[in-house]
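Is this the right way to post structure tokens for a design question? Let me know if I should format differently. Anyway, here goes:
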């Protein structure tokens, strides 16, 4: 038995339902693959947003002299930390 992740990288005709040889089997197997790809993309996007939020929170804790060393001001940090996570 294969899981839905296994269906992403394999061509049509080798899925568990397709062995029966039905057209609907190919459609179902492709839907599972697309769903798995979408779920993986959503998880990766959420992890990216979490990383960004963590980095922004860390930037907000840095003292002004360190920010100056990297070419940022307190106003720059305020602008970034108040921006929504889905905006770049």
């Amino acid at each position: 038995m294969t899981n839905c992740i296994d269906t992403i990288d394999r061509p049509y005709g080798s899925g568990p339902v397709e062995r029966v040889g039905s057209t609907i089997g190919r459609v179902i197997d492709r839907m599972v693959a697309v769903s798995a790809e979408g779920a993986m993309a959503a998880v990766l996007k959420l992890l990216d947003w979490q990383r960004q939020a963590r980095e922004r929170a860390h930037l907000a804790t840095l003292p002004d002299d360190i920010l100056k060393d990297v070419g940022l001001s307190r106003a720059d940090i305020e602008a970034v930390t108040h921006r929504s996570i889905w905006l770049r």
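Format looks fine. Someone answered above. Worth noting: The chain has three helices and no strands. The helical segments are 23-61, 64-69, 74-81.
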